[in-house]
Write a structure and sequence with these properties.
Blueprint: H1 6-21, H2 27-35, E1 56-59, E2 62-64, H3 67-77, E3 84-88, H4 94-101, E4 105-110, H5 113-126, E5 131-134, E6 147-152, H6 161-165, E7 167-178, E8 183-191, E9 194-203
Parallel strand pairs: 3-4, 3-6, 4-5, 6-7
Antiparallel strand pairs: 1-2, 7-8, 8-9
Helix pairs in contact: 1-2, 2-4
The structure holds S-adenosylmethionine.
């Protein structure tokens, strides 16, 4: 059983206030972040940092994203209850939980087998049940397409065409795009086949690997 005590709930409420101060306006997103116990995704050594607005290592050279980044991406995604959402980069599973708190039906794909195995076992213990997939999400997940929303939580060199193809009509894709170290947050909206692109702030994500991402950790 995962403990979520008074102190942790207090720290979470404080984090939500901070995100609001930083400009997150969508109350449903703030409420969802206020519900997911972020500390359970942390090792004991880092537990005291769980409610800081920072990214932290989760093993395998990967990170749990900064809460502000999670909130920013989720706000841009405009999730409605019942939306079918594809998340690319399951990682710890934290973002998937936030999406499910918003009422989304979540399909999440992870490239790293150890993280996939770990999160697939852990999330149901918390009571969250997305559909888990292991593989190269840079190509999306065509077998379950189309999606109302697609969220990429790793930095891509370009917007993969396959992801635009897998969007439903009125679908929204949020993806950080740019170099290996710094990316601009991009939102793509597809309405009646017309694709609209908007650009937002700069972020620093770990690289999206795979066929339509970066080819390896070294280039
Ligand atoms: N959403 C995660 C969370 O809530 O903890 C954080 C994701 S972490 C910043 C990025 C993740 O993307 C890593 O777990 C990494 O292994 C994964 N990744 C990188 N390239 C991928 C690909 N082509 N397909 C699926 N996952 C990928």
């Amino acid at each position: 059983m995962v403990e979520d005590n008074y102190r942790q709930r207090g720290l979470r409420a404080k984090l939500v206030r901070k995100l609001r101060q930083k400009g997150i306006r969508d109350e449903a997103v703030l409420e969802a972040i206020g519900k997911v116990p972020r500390h359970v995704f942390f090792d004991n050594a880092l537990l005291s940092h769980a409610y800081e607005d920072k990214a932290f290592p989760i093993g395998e050279g990967q990170t749990i994203s900064q809460p502000y980044t999670v909130a920013f991406q989720t706000e841009l995604l405009q999730v409605k209850p019942g939306d079918k959402v594809l998340e690319i980069g399951t990682g710890s599973g934290y973002q998937a939980c936030v999406l499910m708190e918003l009422g989304a039906k979540v399909y999440t794909i992870e490239y790293n087998k150890k993280l996939y195995d770990r999160t697939k076992e852990f999330l149901p213990e918390l009571g969250y049940h997305p559909f888990f997939f292991h593989g190269d999400g840079s190509k999306g997940l065509p077998i379950r397409a189309p999606y109302d929303k697609i969220l990429v939580t790793a930095g891509a060199p370009v917007v993969p065409d396959s992801l635009i193809h897998q969007l439903a009509n009125h679908g929204v894709l949020v993806i950080p795009v740019g170099g290996r170290d710094k990316q601009v947050m991009v939102r793509i909206t597809k309405v009646n086949g017309v694709v609209r692109k908007e650009e937002f702030d700069t972020f620093a994500f770990v690289p999206l690997l795979g066929k339509e991402g970066w080819t390896s950790d070294t280039n």
